[in-house]
Specification:
Elements lengths: L1 E2 L6 H9 L12 E3 L2 E4 L5 H14 L7 E7 L2 H10 L5 H10 E6 L2 E5 L5 H22 L7 H18 L5 H12 L3 H4 L5 H4 L2 H11 L1 H19 L1 H10 L5 H9 L3 H15 L1
Parallel strand pairs: 3-4, 4-6
Antiparallel strand pairs: 1-5, 2-3, 5-6
Helix pairs in contact: 2-5, 3-4, 5-6, 5-12, 6-11, 7-11, 10-11, 11-12, 12-13
The structure holds zinc ion.
Length: 274
């Protein structure tokens, strides 16, 4: 999941609320990008294909053979899509529709196009949610891996994609994220509580409580550290291990230390960058 932009301009908010009728871009015949079959509305196909190509060819990420991309252009239609295509429970749909710009499920992503401000944020949203599809494919479902790592890796991949598209740089994103992380109450107090942030529900509650931007930035820096230290393939192995064991064991098995030991190490690393 990716939260809404934080400075959604008033004009965009007004547009969304005035956009009563739900109009989904027409579906196009499935197209094949190498051996991944994409089912995506025709108007959004070039952007999605470009990102899928980078994720597979340059980053060697294993996208499933078939991916469906649903795009909604109003909050109302996104809300309906969350129920119909995202299998979100009716008692949670308003909460998710209020803060999320996208949602991923195994083999599919749901995107609210007007929640992403500008081309860079749109590309970031697509890459972020497609990374979750990769994670779910490896883990054998959603909610199996540590949520902070699933979100952090989705951000890491999205920023890498943006760098390759010439929109942004990973180095700049790290600098900005470190500035945001300093405002996170846990980081400032020397405690990330990664064990709790591993639970999807707890992650949602805490990013709403502790600051969405800061929580995602911290998740990005933490996942980025794992990628730099172990390499992307090992981080992908972690998701694969979640298929067969609970996430605590998968973490220890993959990275050779407990989540608590890792938390101490990554905190010291990040404080050293300040
Ligand atoms: Zn996400």
């Amino acid at each position: 999941m990716l939260k809404l932009g934080f400075r959604l301009p008033l004009v965009a908010l007004l547009f969304v609320s005035a956009c009563g009728a739900t109009k989904i871009a027409p579906a196009a015949p499935a197209s094949a990008t190498s051996d991944v079959t994409l089912d995506v509305p025709v108007v959004h196909r070039p952007a999605v294909e470009e990102i899928v190509t980078i994720m597979r060819r340059d980053l060697a990420l294993p996208l499933p053979a078939q991916v469906r991309v649903f795009v909604y252009d109003s909050r109302a239609s996104f809300r309906t899509g969350l129920i119909d295509e995202g299998y979100v429970a009716p008692d949670r749909v308003n909460e998710i529709a209020s803060f999320a710009a996208g949602l991923a499920r195994p083999g599919r992503v749901l995107l609210h196009s007007r929640a992403a401000r500008g081309r860079t944020e749109w590309r970031r949203l697509i890459a972020h949610e497609l990374t979750h599809v990769v994670e779910f494919g490896l883990a054998g479902g959603d909610g199996r891996a540590d949520q902070w790592l699933a979100e952090g890796l989705a951000e890491r991949v999205a920023f890498d994609v943006l760098e390759r598209l010439g929109d942004d740089s990973l180095a700049e994103r790290r600098t900005r994220a470190l500035g945001g992380a300093r405002k996170h109450p846990g980081f400032a107090a020397g405690r990330l509580d990664l064990a709790a942030l591993g639970s999807p529900r707890e992650f949602t509650l805490r990013h709403q409580r502790d600051g969405s931007l800061e929580t995602y930035q911290l998740a990005f820096l933490t996942a980025d550290y794992l990628v730099q230290r172990h390499g992307m393939n090992t981080v992908l192995d972690y998701f694969q291990n979640c298929r067969e064991m609970d996430r605590d064991r998968a973490f220890s098995r993959t990275f050779g230390q407990s989540i608590q030991q890792f938390e101490t190490e990554v905190l010291s690393h990040l404080h050293g960058l300040e």
